[in-house]
Design brief:
homodimer, 434 residues, alpha/beta, Spore Coat Polysaccharide Biosynthesis Protein SpsA, Chain A, 9-stranded mixed sheet, two-stranded antiparallel ribbon, 53% helix
């Protein structure tokens, strides 16, 4: 393995941010302060060392940084007593500590893949992350525009008439930035933008095009709400099942958004969803229609809140291998216990031994559909994602039983979806044979 | 990922090898010719380009190389018409084609990890793979001994009285070897050993100590039998289950050794073992003791031959992700069908609904024990190998039912081992929680 030096991130958090109404780094967004969110999102993408430049109400910010440090993040504060002059002074405050570093603002948010792509692909020349899809930029009149020649930035500023891209507020700098800011200051402008323009004049800064994914500069409370929406919208995954994508996620994300404000761990949600599924399953035992229908509703609800553990983990950067492992094992146990009680429900209706065979084959199907996928991933080192595989996922099997239970046909619906699961496993095996 | 140049391997296969009785490169060992085995074992370890230096009965060897090339291996032959003078001339024949290369003999065998460690750790200086455990070297009087000073080889030869290690016959050379061999030839010795001694005199060759694993120089038919034993002995894995290690492997390796001589693919063995398990399971349906006992014997036999697919794959370098995937999926289906029929067997005895619940929980246990392990491996990128995990493997569950069936208690034994499986899954989850 080739080990690459990862440079530190300098977070500019010295400004007053009047339009936010509070001390900006401490403003909450989905359960985390803006500063925590910035640090944790860059930490997730691979940055291991952080500097927070503080100025306005710095004692409060420093106290908060102290709390973050206690959680094991290597983060230091840098005082910038000149913060009122402009945010260029905050970058100057890094001088003597680091020669190469990333810079972003405390109120800019980027999707993980956007950050990863940037930090993995720059590291020598001064570079700005740019967005060429200018038509899609929110608040274009407030944005800083960039004029390019090839990859080189030849002009930058809010007032540019002709431009090729927009400044996203994520930079990589080497020592040349210090001199450039000083030059701009001599001309009376201590903003980082003025320093960057000096670099552009000398042909010493380049643009790196943003990879697919969101970014937002959240200057106002309204823009914070937009940032929240963008972050939530980035959660549903391409590989989500059909019911999950179109129904479950829409509800679970609303619940997760609300739960983010409390100190609820993803693992607690895993266990709550598991217990809900078990409680629902047990109701199949009684056999009366009203219980069966209620059981169906509860297991479908359990299937919805099953999304919350992963969502909270991603929204608050709490993902862990243990959490993912626990979630999957409990999902399989919940599926199995559901199959067992639905089988008993069928037995109450038909009173035939054959019911138990169908039950055993259904339980087997639910586990094998998932097992086959996992085993494939282990062997081939990639996900098994054919079109038909969407039809053998957890969201579909629970939804089928839920619908079946409304017609008092939970057992029949379960057997049909289970047999489909077996067929899909067989098709997958047959197809991939060379 | 950091990509490293892998140098080619030159295989010395020009000699007469009188003691073998046939053309040496074509002699068969466990279903493959010595030449195929050498090429495929280095290919498995990462070498991608091969030269075979031919001399004695070269047309036959060339025809065989042509067959190997057709299977997609990048291999060329190099003629050495001077082969009778000594094997140094075979290395000289490489001049003009490669400047840095590995060299081994067609009758030397090394365990995969030994090769991997060598090819991953040398690539600049002339290097010889040496074995310092001289006490354990078979036929020490015939071995070439090595005297070291630090890592430097200062003397080498069969007659050395004082020595630190033994020459294993695997080298890495740069161009300096050509001159060294020529010097030795001028003094009347055209062997590679003489050339290597010239390098040693100049302080230009180093020893690399062999990693744990077998190596053997198989000069005679008797030594070939020893090589066969060493290769077979390297198959059982540390993570094999208790019954597998102590019983199943001992039988299956004998079967695999014999099957190696036929054109039987590992996947065919996977399917045969699956069908045997199903056939055995069905006998549990009848309920009479004699059928139950027979069922137990057949499933235990299926469990034994379940090892053959992987063994043949490893012995003949036929491992594939698909093969591993298919094997695991069919094992789980076989486990499940066995659980289903054993449950029916229990039902015939007890005629109580509770039997079906136990059956469902047993099937679930068999799948979850394996599922939990796979999921752990996916999430943590390492195997879950606690001591107790040996008690929830396939060999144990089938052996338990086999023993149970001999006492006409297959169902009871299944339930007990299944509940143990569930407990182990729970312990694993609880233990790894931080």
């Amino acid at each position: 393995m080739y080990l690459r030096k990862v440079f530190p991130l300098v977070i500019l958090a010295a400004g007053e941010g009047r339009r936010m109404g509070e001390v900006k780094p401490l403003v909450k967004l989905l359960g985390l302060s803006l500063l925590e969110r910035t640090i944790l999102s860059f930490n997730e993408a691979g940055i291991r060392k952080f500097y927070v430049v503080v100025g306005y109400r710095k004692e409060e910010v420093k106290k908060h940084v102290e709390e973050i440090r206690k959680r094991g993040i290597d983060v230091e504060t840098i005082d910038n007593d000149n913060w009122k002059k402009g945010n260029g002074t905050s970058v100057l405050a890094v001088r003597g500590r680091e020669k190469k570093f990333f810079v972003t603002m405390v109120d800019h948010f980027f999707e993980k893949d956007v950050i990863k792509d940037f930090i993995e692909n720059v590291g020598r020349r001064n570079t700005l992350l740019i967005d060429k899809e200018v038509d899609r930029v929110f608040n274009i009149h407030e944005a800083t525009k960039v004029k390019l020649k090839g990859n080189k930035i030849i002009d930058i500023g809010k007032e540019l008439k002709e431009y090729d891209a927009v400044d996203t507020g994520l930079f990589f700098f080497n020592e040349e930035i210090f001199e450039a800011i000083e030059e701009a200051m001599k001309e009376g402008n201590a903003s980082l933008a003025a320093g960057v323009r000096k670099l552009a004049e000398k042909g010493k800064i380049y643009g790196h095009e943003k990879k697919r994914g969101y970014w937002i500069d959240a200057d106002t409370k309204e823009e914070l709400r937009i940032a929240e929406k963008l972050i939530l919208k980035s959660i549903p995954k391409k590989e989500d099942g059909i019911i999950s994508f179109n129904l479950n996620r829409k509800v679970s994300l609303k619940i997760s958004k609300w739960l983010c404000n409390f100190n609820i761990s993803p693992n607690l949600m895993t266990i709550l969803s598991f217990l809900t599924a078990i409680a629902g399953s047990i109701l199949f035992y009684f056999g009366k229609y009203i219980y069966t229908a209620l059981a169906g509703i509860i297991i479908q609800f359990a299937s919805i809140i099953d999304g919350c553990d992963g969502e909270i983990a991603r929204l608050k950067f709490l993902s862990s291998p243990y959490g993912a492992w626990l979630d999957t094992i409990l999902d399989r146990y919940a599926d199995a216990i559901m199959a067992i009680f639905v089988t008993y429900n069928g037995w109450l209706i038909y009173r035939s031994i054959i019911i138990w065979f169908f039950g055993l084959f259904s339980l087997l199907a639910f586990l094998m559909a998932s097992y086959s996928r996992k085993e494939y991933e282990l062997r081939y080192n990639k996900k098994l994602e054919g079109k038909i595989d969407k039809l053998s996922k957890r969201d579909i099997r629970i939804f089928s039983i839920f619908i079946g239970s409304l017609f008092n046909k939970a057992f029949e619906f379960m057997v049909v979806i289970a047999m489909l699961h077996h067929i899909i496993v067989a098709i997958d095996l047959a197809r991939r044979r060379k």
